[in-house]
Design goal:
Elements lengths: L2 H5 L7 H22 L3 H21 L3 H25 L15 H22 L15 H11 L1 H29 L11 H8 L1
């Protein structure tokens, strides 16, 4: 162990650790804005910042493959699909009162419980797992890709079906809205109400 390694500790973080902390704070703030804003378009754009921050965190952890998967699948596909659905359904650009259901405390309670359960599951699963940071890399892009598309292929397929269902639902809602806004057709030889009013005068 060198002198620099011996002096490194909790009170003397490296530049990568400081960058990781700062990016994590920005990502956490963007996630909070995503779930608290009442403007749907702004929520989708802040979601882009959140997912991009996670990609940067993966890069700082030297997980380049996972970082690019994050960018290509989530930022490049999921968020674009969300914006496409918002445009099809003619979502309001400004503040939307319908975006607030009035159950903020119930939603906050569920979110805290879900976060606590997730943290407990992850800590319990990796309690005895130790990684030698000074040793060689534990996995390569080939190993990671094989693990993702062999052991986790079902979640990927389920996500694609979910995205397709969301896109079809947005198209159906947009067509229904157009049908409701269209004026009622008038039969030949009949007069409209406005014509009847003018004739009565």
């Amino acid at each position: 162990m060198t002198l620099a390694q011996a002096q490194h500790g909790f009170l003397s973080p490296t530049g990568v650790e400081i960058a990781f902390l700062l990016v994590g704070l920005v990502t956490f703030g963007a996630a909070l804005v995503t779930v608290t804003t009442r403007q749907l378009v702004h929520a989708a754009l802040w979601l882009v910042v959140t997912l991009g921050g996670l990609a940067v965190e993966y890069l700082l952890l030297t997980a380049e493959f996972i970082a690019w998967v994050q960018v290509l699948i989530y930022v490049g596909s999921v968020v674009v699909l969300l914006l496409f659905g918002l445009m099809l359904t003619k979502a309001p650009i400004g503040r939307s009162p319908d975006a607030d259901s009035g159950n903020r405390w119930a939603a906050l309670t569920v979110a805290i419980a879900a976060a606590a359960a997730l943290v407990w599951v992850v800590v319990d699963a990796f309690r005895t797992t130790w990684i030698d940071l000074d040793g060689p890399a534990a996995g390569s892009t080939k190993v990671t890709g094989a693990s993702l598309f062999q052991n986790w292929v079902l979640p990927f397929e389920a996500l694609s079906v979910l995205l397709l269902a969301a896109l079809v639902g947005a198209i159906v809602l947009s067509r229904k809205a157009k049908a409701d806004d269209a004026p009622a057709p008038t039969l030949p030889g009949t007069r409209t109400n406005q014509a009847d009013k003018e004739g009565a005068r």
